[in-house]
Amino acid sequence: MKLIVAIIQPHKLDAVKTALEGVDVHLMTVTEVLGQGRQKGFTEVYRGAKEAGGLLKKIRLDIAVNDNFVEPTITAITKGAHTGEVGDGKIFVLDLAECIRISTGERGSTAIG
After folding, report:
1. For the chain, which residues score pLDDT lower than 50?
2. CATH number, domain 2-112, options 3.40.50.150, 3.30.559.10, 3.30.70.120, 3.30.590.20
3. What is the pLDDT of residue 41?
4. Looking at residue 87, what is its pLDDT?
5. How far apart are CA 73 and CA 93, in angstroms?
């Protein structure tokens, strides 16, 4: 079992969801987050002065999958989120020690869905 955490551009959420549905991944948690990467936020000109904009709005997806869904999930996220520009996002794959479905008490890979 793995936990896939993806940070993507907000405007790419629909494309990523569509791509994930295409590989039978339907369960996810979506959170609006702020952050900065290599672009270190953004700068804009306000009344003739350059000002740092700080943190950028991003979307965080948390997706728990069984091992056979890891690569299709990564491929779908990459396909849906890719623009080729700096700031497309990142994908992190973490080992998931345990998953428990609260309503039934199921544990492990059957609890993921």
Report:
1. 51
2. 3.30.70.120
3. 58
4. 84
5. 10
